[in-house]
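The step that takes the researchers longest sounds almost clerical: writing a folded protein down as plain text. The outcome of that step, for a single protein, is printed below.
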Amino acid sequence: MVDEGDGQTLHVPPPAADLPARMEKFLAFANDSSDDPFIHPVVRAVLLHFWLAYEHPYVDGNGRTARAVFYWYMLTHNYWLFEYLSISRIILKSVRQYARAYLYAEHDDRDATYFLVYHLKAIRLALEELHHYLARKQKEMRKAITLLRKIPDLNYRQIALLQHALKHQDAVYTIESHKNSHNIVRATARTDLFDLVERRYLTKRKQNRRYYFGPVPDIGEKLDIFPSTRL
């Protein structure tokens, strides 16, 4: 591991000759389902992150792989919310603290407490970031619903579809699905959807004899409701 700022070597991995045996121990720890002694899944996931990056088995991508292992362990142990947490974003904001957590552990006889404390703080910050994001999106969606109702000449079915499209920008609609959703005749469903295409809120493509509709890119901006934002 090398400091990209000054080129200083921060970590020299253990001898490569012993790597197969050490990785066997790593895999055994990763797949241990026993409760003796009990290790909390979050702690075990963090230790797996630390362990793989410490071993440094690859020329490049060790950090990314270690973080992927962390996510794999959390998700396979039903911590589903971690699918939406960006731990990597937090680490990139504090990359020197990340490196120091490894150095402190290495200099203190591989005591991983330093890294564990750092990683738990990163998880907390990622959770706070997610909560702020969700609060912002809820506020935007309330504003969207209010403003959609003020767009002239949109009927309630079109408003409902656009509300759904704002929440699910990869959604696909058909004349048949719109017809069934609102219990209307096919001609009315077709008119609704083609009108939204004409207004440039939906895209349209034809496959065989069926039309498929979807939200235009950045539909929120198109509706002048809110700018495109990402977590």
